[in-house]
């Protein structure tokens, strides 16, 4: 038995590569994304009434990692990257069916060219194929009393400091929207490094929009070393 699904849309987001994407939606509230509906689904009728909802579930394909297949056991970053749990006890991308589920804020719907859903707090790679959208219904789905296993609250946040070189480079790039700095702070505060790496000298790079952000982490402090135009070729 197998089923074939067709994407109804594609995500446009600041996240051009996997590294640095928040590990869950809403962890970087400044991460704005768009869901662009594809033909024949790009008709206003498809979303009639949706703008009355503040949040939506997005079901999508982990397209970037799908070819790697699945494993029964995974190492969640929240357990330090050492302990294993069943893949079905995790939000890992390495699932039998590589389907993700994210709850995001719906900031608006744009009808200028086709249909675009304006999303806030996304954890989605640019180009992600979307299978479905459903309105979030709090009285059914919000369960503050629920047990959440090894995920016992938001992850610890690092403090983010900008070097003067990074400040200057940001000032020089007038094209970047005013909330770019906030997005960098939110992304880096999540500590994008793999759980097993802790080298204060190591310089990392995260790509946001068309910019590479260089940083390093020492203890609970991130230093933004510089920002550079990304090589988009
Ligand atoms: N909220 C979703 C869920 O629970 O199904 C995603 C959780 S998953 C742990 C989040 C990670 O998925 C991100 O940090 C990013 O690295 C990865 N990711 C996002 N979009 C992806 C895509 N299209 N293909 C592969 N990996 C993706």
Quick tags:
single chain; 233 residues; mainly beta; Elongation Factor Tu (Ef-tu), domain 3; YaeB-like fold; 2 domains; 6-stranded antiparallel β-barrel; 3 helices; binds S-adenosylmethionine
Explain what this protein looks like in three dimensions.
This protein has 233 residues and is mainly beta. Helices cover 10% and strands 30% of the residues. The protein has 2 domains: 9-141, Elongation Factor Tu (Ef-tu), domain 3 (Beta Barrel); 159-229, YaeB-like fold (2-Layer Sandwich), CATH 3.30.2310.20. The protein contains 3 helices and 12 strands; from the N terminus they run ββββββββαβααβββ. 26% of the residues are buried. Bound molecules: S-adenosylmethionine. The site of S-adenosylmethionine has 19 residues, from strand 6.
Query: Count of DSSP E strands?
Result: 12
CATH superfamily of the largest domain: YaeB-like
Rg over C-alpha atoms, rounded to the nearest angstrom: 19 Å
Element-by-element helix/strand order = EEEEEEEEHEHHEEE
Average of pLDDT = 95
What is the beta-strand fraction?
25-35%
Helix percentage range: under 10%
> Main β-sheet, in a few words?
6 strands, antiparallel, barrel
Strand order of the largest sheet: 1-2-7-6-3-8
How does CATH name the architecture of the largest domain?
Answer: Beta Barrel
CATH class of the largest domain: Mainly Beta
Global shape:
globular
Give unreliable regions as ranges: none
Question: What are the bound molecules?
Answer: S-adenosylmethionine
Tell me the domain tally.
Answer: 2
Looking at CATH, which topology of the largest domain would you report? Elongation Factor Tu (Ef-tu), domain 3
What structural class do the secondary elements suggest? mainly beta
Total count of helical runs of at least 4 residues:
3
Terminal Cα separation, in Å? 41 Å
